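Ticket #4471: complex job returned nothing on first submit. Input attached below:
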Amino acid sequence: MSKDIKIKKGLNIRLKGEADKTLSSAPRSRTFVIRPSEFHLITPKMVVKEGEKVEAGTVLFYAKTNEELKFVSPVSGTLSKIERGAKRVITSLHIEGDPQDNFKEFGTKNPDSMNSEEIKNHLLASGCWPFIKQRPYDIIANPEVMPKAIFISGYTTAPLAAEYDFVLKGKESQLQAGVTALSKLTKGKVHAGIGGAGVSPFNGLNDIEIHKVSGPHPAGNVGTLIGEIDPVNKGETVWTISPQDVVIIGELFLTGKFNAERIIALAGSSVKAPKYYTTKIGAEVATFVYDAGLNEENVRVINGNVLTGNAINPKSHLGYYNNTVSVIPEGDDYEFFGWTMPVFNKISTSRALTFSWMFPKKEFDLNTNTNGEHRAFVTTGNYEEVFPLDIFPLQILKACMYKDLDEMEALGMYEVAPEDFSLTEFICVSKQPHQEIIRNGLDLMYKEIG
Amino acid sequence: MGLKQKLHKIKENLKGKKMAPAFAAFHTFLYLPNETTHSGSHIRVADDLKRTMNTVILALIPCLIFGIFNTGYQHFLALGEIEAATNGFFSASFWSWQNFAAGAWSVLPLVIVSYVVGLGVEFIFAIIKGHEVEEGYLVTGMLVPLIVPVDIPLWMLSVAVIFGVVIGKEVFGGTGMNILNPALTIRAFLFFAYPTWMSGDKVWVLDAVERANTPDAISGETILGSLAQNNPVTHDWLDMFYGFVPGSIGETSALLILLGGLFLIFTKIGSWRIMLSSVVGAIVMGLIFNWVTDAGIITETSKFYGLMSTEFWQHLLIGGFAFGVVYMATDPVTASQTNRGKWIYGFLIGFIAILIRVFNPAYPEGMMLAILLMNVFAPTIDHYIVQGNVKRRLKRLKTKTA
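Support reply: We reran it on our side without changes. The output follows.
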């Protein structure tokens, strides 16, 4: 069954350095790192001590609030270092990888013949649960709550992000096992959004409702899919999961192993030969970044795509949820009369002596310069043009800034995640940090309302 | 060491000090800053607030230049030294060097005073409060000299600018937080504090005040003034469209304002929704009044007859209507902030502007008061538009649970 969704509002950002559709194997990383800060609002309780051996799938720590919620090692090796920051908060776990992975055996299972409780316990025990996120609040899903539906977006519209049609090729059986398992966990359906063109690996799967999505970014964001199909009301919960993580879950059922293998896109204008790499969660990004080569020295390496990712040190490691690593030039330089000169080499949604509207097909080479200083909100009406949800973006941002919980709730805070505001942030003339504002707003609501 | 490195060094030295915002204002004027993204989107669009404001100023420059020529032209015309311009928009007797020199001599001081005083206040507040100097005043500072009569004394303008920037903007928290349009706050202050200066038939032509009660007295009444007193209008409508009429410095040329408006719509800086709906609102009100006079309900003996019987489309050309619609009603901070709200906001501005114009014989320019009034009501309009969205969300929940 297939339903069509057409998104009109949005903006496709065309950037130079899209990953070439060839797959290479990244050299095996020496160390692997898990950063607990990636699991938002989770306080880790360590299970393994420094210096102990772990297998791929061994529990490293669990959540302080819920002992069931376990986080496992992506590879086998030795936990060499637990790094702590201020107030002894664990900032990162370093694992010295073995040359070959030993997998902890969870046993092959058939999700078709399992009930919801069994599947849930299996996912929690094997460390696959953290892949599932929930809305409201955009945090790791609460296992106690049964969601009204589960959403997966298999359509890529974010700039330079990994194409799902490419990275999921040949993984149909794992996807099917994962989707079947997930479908037992919800009262409703598992919904997947796929692009109109190309052959999606989701086509032909069972236990899933497929929606053909078309339109500019953020048509591929899972938040847009939820907004179009079944928006979150007060008191309701939906879950979201990225297709690559469904594959890991599927593989767990099919093989009994937690296989943290990832196909990632290495993209961006600073990369000499942008392409896809097979690597593992937590691997050093240097293993593939230097394999592909860099065009310049002064770059920003981003875990994730350029709109929603985190900036990392080039010697740092791949994030737990990321399937894209972007490298773009840093923009820490001045530009003479940059605010008034006609601009041809940067993207703009206005035509105020900016000429990107004349070249709709051109690929731009953008750097990290903000192109202006931080200001109060002044312009109106421009966010709405790139924001497809039935929410007033400016008003909800302001509500978050003055922390009016009632207003935030009334304006639709339960429906949004920070990534939904990445485009409004991109086009913001006042250079306000929209995603941070929304994240802080969600955290405040979670603390006050729960 | 180049200029770029030198300025960078000064900036680093000033970091955290009181003077940092003032220096940054000059520095960022010369150079787009080296600021990079930290959280969220790692890339940003090319536009910033300076560019946005600069675009509005670009749209205002033709009005300023025309205003300079017109000031000289009206002056010499009233003195009887030159012939009226009759050869269309590019008449030689209008675009003359003599007109420009006389106009520039009196208009440029107004521009300079407006900017120096206004930006001075902005800098002081930025230093006291430790925030950046925001760009809002760049547009306000250009608007102010264009909406005052040419004979206004400079001290009066300074007082008004200080009042407008402090009370109209800074007390609310600066650019982006104000409720009333600062330029119109300045204009309203002038009007209510010095009413004899701001109306009548003396202030609209250069030197008219000084020559009053002398044998050389000149006068130039605005079209609105004539209509309000049921006097016959001596200018034909093409003059009004081109702008060869007395009036506030920059607001007479409907043609250039129209071009400026189209430029703002094209660059997506000005809201076409507000501009279009204001015009529609004014036309509707104008048609209602035309109907009233046609039906004989109001006759020539009424003091309202002059403006009421003015053909509806002429209302768009006379007075400050066009200028207000294009450059001041569209101010995003004080206008309605929702797209649907903008339609209502704009329509009511046009509607009320013509209403005030007709029924307020003392001061026939309704545009200023209409915009200020709707500035006050814009948050209310937005509130109801946003409530619509909130109700829809609640209803969705109800149909679910029912």
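Chain B has a mean pLDDT of 87. Closing as resolved unless it happens again.
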